[in-house]
Amino acid sequence: MTLSLQPAPTLGAAADVAATLERLGVAQSLWRGGGREVVSPVTGEGVAQVHDADAQAVDGAVGRAHEAWLAWRRVPAPRRGELVRLLGEELRAAKTDLARLVTLEAGKVVSEGQGEVQEMIDICDYAVGLSRQLFGLTIATERPDHRMMETWHPLGPIGVITAFNFPVAVWSWNAALALVCGDPVVWKPSEKTPLTALAVQAAFERAAARFGDAPAGLSCVLIGGREVGEALADDPRLPLVSATGSTALGRAIGPRLATRFARALLELGGTNAAIAVPPADRHPTPRVRALPPLAPRSPWRRPTALPSRPPRRAPDLRRRGPHVPLRGPVPRPGPAPARSHSGRRCRGQDRRRRLVERGQLCRETVAPGRRRHIRDSQLSAVCCRCPERPGGRRS
User: Fold this and answer.
1) Hey, where are the domains in the chain?
2) Mean pLDDT, residues 155-166 taken together
3) Pairing of strands 219-221, 185-188
């Protein structure tokens, strides 16, 4: 299978992004005239200018999410699953355009962008089924005519921080389950990929409008840098923060959450490699910066970051025995080098062993089935060049 390493947009990147955002229903006021420029790694040109959220905007978004939680937690779980089902339908309808936007903003190949959107659709389907499976235990007690019943309650608004290399799927993994469980979501996307977040938020708003009575503030997007993530980590109204990114991000957020005894869901520090093959340009150009999604094949680790240091030397798997799962057969290590009785290496035996292993020795001397597994003692018995045998001579 041949993959195109660089998408070839029919328009310029900026015009292509503008047309795609318009089809996705994202208002121009959200991506025009802002202070943060969005650069496409496909061409290296600026395609939009988004607005960063200040401290007041963060506080207002978390406050609306908290108010939405007070109403959303009273909605039955199967009814909450209906909203997620409608979100999945909106994502299906916008799959082509949303995948195109992922390609233009994150630099993924078209097939990878489509696969990421498909993962969003799949998790919505999963969450819809989960909405009717939020079971609790019924526990017997020592009291007569009495039982204990376990019921799961919504936790509260959830903060979600995502990375550039999986700009939309990671949000869906968190949001679909959180919404079914009765928890609103406050999303801080990577500052490198804010446009895909705005497009997903537009799809959610369309689903909420079709749902009818969804409270305002169930999902919101906060664009910004490190200060926005720190504000979410420090806000006591967010009992859980899910963050995906580097280990430095985890070291910064983890202690903040632990200080106020909040829960942390961290996915940090991927070390997958990327393989550049012809005709890829190996120089540090925007084309190469779009390569990380290509190398690993597991769907949840495909686009993680490249290692900053050279990998360690791979161990010799042949010495670990035949249980090592490799694609090809593991060759058995050959016998130890033959030595004479005086301790010196017998070069004649080495030569005869190589002939045996290659199958070039006559059948009268060694049986065919023993050519590759002949022992030193048997080999020395037929070695006419060994200096320790009478009549033998050194080669």
Assistant:
1) 13-136+153-270+289-294, 334-395
2) 94
3) parallel
- Rounded Cα distance between 202 and 198, Å, is 6
147 beta partners: 140
CB atoms within 10 A of CB 329: 7
Positive or negative torsion for Cα 126, 132, 197, 162: negative
Q: Which residue has the tokens 């007041």?
A: 56
pLDDT score, position 277: 60
State the sign of the Cα–Cα–Cα–Cα dihedral 120, 126, 131, 134.
Answer: negative
pLDDT at 6 over 50: no
Task: Give the pLDDT confidence of 106-129 residue by residue, as tens digits.
Answer: 989 899 999 999 999 999 999 999
Please give the CATH number for the structural domain made up of 13-136+153-270+289-294: 3.40.605.10
Q: How many whole angstroms separate alpha carbon 230 and alpha carbon 221?
A: 15
Non-local CB neighbours of 12 within 8 Å, separated by 6+ positions: 43, 45
Q: What is the pLDDT of residues 213-246, one digit of tens each?
A: 999 999 999 999 999 999 999 999 999 999 999 9
Rounded to two decimals, what is the model's pTM? 0.68
Q: What is the mean pLDDT of residues 23-51?
A: 92
Q: SS3 for 170-211, per residue? A: HHHHHHHHHHHCCCCEEEECCCCCHHHHHHHHHHHHHHHHHH
> Would you call 318 helix, strand, or coil by DSSP?
helix
**Phi (first) and psi of residue 149, to 5 degrees:** -125, 130
